[in-house]
Amino acid sequence: MESQSGEPLGALTQSMERMEARLEAAAALFERTAAMLEERENERSGEVRKIVAAVETGRETDLQRKLEAAEQQIAELRAQMETHGKSPRKTVPAATAQFLAKQGIALESVEAGTLDAALNGLSLEQRIAVKAQLLRAGALG
Known about the structure:
The chain has 141 residues and is mainly α. The protein folds into 2 domains: 1-87; 94-137, no CATH class. It contains 4 helices and no strands. It has helices at residues 9-84, 94-102, 112-119, 124-137. The relative contact order is 0.05.
């Protein structure tokens, strides 16, 4: 018996079987390669996750320890202030004090309206800087 192309049917069957065997071998190789690549990817991502977790945990512990030390120091300083009965020191930079003195403003009696009038000739940034200094020094309430 012959096929439509004139080849014997047995030769065609053998050719198809060889092709099928080659395709099966290629598919098996492809599956092994895919499995190997997947395993490598899992190993790599697993290692990175472990490192990141270890770094974050260490950093968090360090920050927690520093926070506790800072809170303890603040509590000690507050206790010292209460024991001595002194209020925090209120100082203004010399340049700010001189500027306000030239405008006729005493630091003990700084009023918002008077301060705004005195600072009117300054730029917005300079006015903000002067007010920030006065706030830090406790001269403004």
